[in-house]
Amino acid sequence: MSPNLGTAASVFFFGQMYVxxxxxxxxxxxxxxxxxxxxxxxxxxxLNTPDGRQGWASYFLEKGFTVYLVDPPQRGRSAYVQGxxxxxxxxxxxxxxxxxxxxxxxxxxLSSSYPQASLHTQWPGTGLQGDPIFDQFYASQVQLQRxxxxxxxxxKPALNALIDKVGPCVLFAHSQAGPYAWVAGDSRPELxxxxxxxxxxxxxxxxxxxxxxKARIDGVTRLPLRYNPPVVNxxxxxxxxxxxxxxxxxxxxxxxxxxxxxPRKLVNLSKVPVALVTGEASYHAPYDWCFxxxxxxxxxxxxxxxxxxxxxxxxxxxxxxxxxxxxxxxLVLGWIMKNVNRGPK
Length: 345
Description:
Blueprint: E1 18-22, E2 33-36, H1 56-62, E3 67-71, E4 89-90, H2 94-102, H3 132-139, E5 144-145, H4 148-166, E6 169-174, H5 178-187, E7 192-198, E8 227-228, H6 234-237, E9 240-243, E10 256-259, E11 265-266, E12 274-278, H7 289-298, E13 302-306, H8 325-339
Parallel strand pairs: 2-3, 2-6, 6-7, 7-12, 12-13
Antiparallel strand pairs: 1-3, 4-5, 8-11, 9-10
Helix pairs in contact: 4-5
C-alpha cells in the first residue's frame, strides 16, 4: 500500500512484506514451504543456528522443497516508517530472552516458571548474556510492532497476497506467527495444504499470566474465523467453559478454556491439516494440549508432535535452533510426507 500523505515527498509504502525465495537445484517436492517467524525474529532464524549449524530452511531445501522466508510487516527487512504508520515498535529485553527462551532451567525459582523448565538441555552454550552463542542469537533480535492487533491486520493481506502468488503451499509458523497461519488457512483453505505450528501463540481464548494485550477472543486468533454456526456476536455466541487437565497431568498441565457444548466448527480451517510442535521443556509444555482439545472441538485434523513424548528430549521454545534441531525437523518432514504430500491435489 502507498498512501498519499500530501506532497510527492511524503508518499511512502507501508504494510509491505519482505520475502526471500530459495529454490533447490532439483525440486522434488509438490508444495513449497513458507516460513513465518515469531515475535522479535526475522526469517534468518530458519537459515542457520546461532552456533553455525544447518537450520530448518536449509534442511528442507536439501530435501527438494522450494522455501519462502518472510519478514512480517514492520519488522526486519519489512521496514517500519516512523511517524507515518500506526502503533509503536520496540525490542525484547535480554532478561526476557534468557528466562523464557534460552535458559529457563536457570530461572526455575521465579514465580513465572513452570515444572518442565528443569528439563531444558538443548540450547547450545549457556543461554546467558556473555556467552558468544547467546550474544550471536540476541544480536539477531529486531524491533517489532508492540500492538499485536496491528500486526494481525497488516500480516493478513500481505500473507494472503504471497499465498495467492505462490499457489498451493505449506505454512510454517513459529510462536507469534501462529495466529497469522490460522487466519491464512481460514482465508485460503484451497491453497494452504498444511500448517506446521511451532509452539503457536496461545493458549486458546485466554491470555497468559503477565502478558498484556487482547487475548485470542476468536479461539486462536484476534481476527474473525469462519465458524458454523456463524459467530455474529462473539461474546454471546462463543460460550466458554474450563476443562481440567487429564488425570495424572494435574501438576504438569494447566486448565484449558474451551467451547461449551455443542461447539461450533471451523468451516475453512477444518480443511487444512495441522501439525502442532511442542518442546518438552518449553513454557508451552503446560498448555499446548489445549490447542489439541480446541481443534478436536472445531473439526480441525491436528497432529500433536509432542517432542518429548516422541523421543526428542530437552527442547525449549526454539527447537529449530537447538542442538537436536535435525531430530525435530525429521519428525516434521515425516508428517508432511504422510499428511500433505500424499493427500489430494
